[in-house]
Amino acid sequence: MPYNKEIYEKAQEIIEQRRKDAENKNSAIIRLFETMEPEYSALKKEMINSVKEAVKAIDMSPEKAAEFIQQQKIRNLTAQQNIKLLLKKHSLSENYLEIKYFCPECEDTGFKDGKLCECHIKLLKDLAFEEAGKKSPLKFCRFEDFRLDYYSDKAPSKNELSPREKMEEIYSFCKEYTASFDTSSQSVLMQGQTGLGKTHLSLSIAGEVIKKGYSVLYNSAQNIFNTLQKERFGKSDTGGAFEAMVLECDLLVIDDLGAEFFTQFTNAALYNIINTRINMCLPTIISTNLTLSEIENIYSTRISSRLIGEYAVLNFSGNDIRQIKSENNQ
Ligand SMILES: [Zn+2]
Predict the structure, then answer these.
(1) What is the DSSP code (8-state) at residue 56?
(2) What is the number of H-type helices and E-type strands within the chain?
(3) pLDDT at residue number 234
(4) How far apart are CA 36 and CA 280, in angstroms?
(5) Closest CA to 194 of 91, 110, 58, 318
(6) Mean predicted confidence (pLDDT) in 181-193
(7) Cα-atom radius of gyration of the chain, to the nearest Å?
(8) At a CB cut-off of 8 Å and minimum separation 6, what does 16 contact?
(9) pLDDT value of position 135
(10) How far is ligand 1, taken at its centre, from the CA of residue 112, in Å?
(11) What is the domain partition of the chain in residue ranges?
């Protein structure tokens, strides 16, 4: 995944800081241990000297050199053994005096075998999402704050469910969806008029999924298309980073599809997002006021048919709850 320059620099800074922190902590531990056990400094010196001494073997005859090196080796191992005993005396683990790196794989250098270490890749990803999240105008909601009692419990007819019963089903679906979420979860289309709680529930899912450690990109359709367009036509320096995030994040939530200014670009971009993510088996949640037939008319049949075939469709119905909400808050 490509990232912009600032993200790479910030990641590098954080990794360097991690290394410094680990080294400083280690120095403090060693200083403390030296005061606890003054013998430790002498043993450490003994280890260093045995290594220095072994170099002298270069000027010796082969037999003598082998014997001399063996002696130094024993000296070194004895010192090591005595340090272990000192640690044991204080019930400290054998690796107590070693540096505890944030990432033992790369010892906080960010690179392993000449490639970016996994910790580095994860950090870049986290930083990029943090950055994208800042641009999102939305604040995360919680399931606990969702009020089912705002929905009418009067069924329109005998054979139909009341708006509240329907919402209870949708609410349970969303809770279940969140609890069992992984990157193979199904995609969801939340469909219904404005003010029925689509945004609240999709934001609740996104918030919980983030807490589980997944990468989530949440934004309005308008913002997503605008940013993609700027990136495509070279008006931003993100180097394709945003598009990669939209296509590759663990969960993408597109809020309010249909409110954006429709163009050929948005139409093609939407199909590309839906299609690519289905092919990569990555879940997407789309909320929209549009019906499936309106989606077909405005965008295309190929988009609506992919949604019908692959998405779980949740129909939000009833009356706009925002008015009841504001009356309640007065
Ligand atoms: Zn690493």
Answers:
(1) G
(2) 12, 7
(3) 76
(4) 57
(5) 318
(6) 94
(7) 30
(8) 108
(9) 60
(10) 7
(11) 5-119, 136-329
- % helix / strand / coil in the chain, to the nearest 5? 60, 10, 30
pLDDT tens digits along 298-307: 999 999 999 9
CA of 121 to the centre of ligand 1 (A): 9
What is the pLDDT confidence band of residue 242, given thresholds at 50, 70 and 90? confident
- Sign of the alpha-carbon torsion through 288, 291, 294, 299: positive
Compute the distance from residue 12 Cα to the ligand 1 centre, in Å.
12
- CATH no. for 136-329: 3.40.50.300
With beta carbons less than 8 A apart as the criterion, state whether 177 and 285 touch: no
Name residues whose C-beta falls within 8 Å of residue 31's C-beta, 6 or more positions apart in sequence: none
Ligand 1 (single-atom ion) residues, CB below 5 Å: 103, 105-106, 117, 119
Strands 251-257 and 216-220: parallel
Helix (H) or strand (E) run with residue 50 in it: helix 39-54
Residue 239 CA to ligand 1 centre (angstroms)? 25
Ligand 1 center to 202 CA (angstroms): 34
Answer yes or no: pTM beyond 0.85: no
